[in-house]
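Pasting as-is:
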Amino acid sequence: MYNISDIYRQARLDETMQIVRNNNVSYINVGVKISRYASKTEILNCSRNGDYYDEISSDEYRMFYSKGWEAGCIILAISNCVRKLKMIQQKMQEEVNSRKNDKFIKNLKTKREFVMKKYSYYTQKLIKLNKNEKIKDSKYKG
């Protein structure tokens, strides 16, 4: 188990984007931002609600506490892809059942293909990360 300070330290050591603003240092990795302020450290989901960042839920915090920064970011990115795919599927169903605009449906299919590629990429990245951690664990147990 990790605490929020451990996760922030992992983000600092990871090769992520660093943003310095008003003496606060934030790190962004695959749509997840961790920021440390004088009063608290928070993790934000940059892919959930459009133009502003939304703090992650308590369940997502627990996932970060158990998995760490890198795996937590990837799992959250996969979750974002699944949510986007569900939204695209719903829009496609609504469009097919109402206007039947071929251009709009084709655009949704293109978006779905793009999100599926991202989903596949993050899934492969998580599998690779899990394999690397198992190798590290077996070396230290030996």
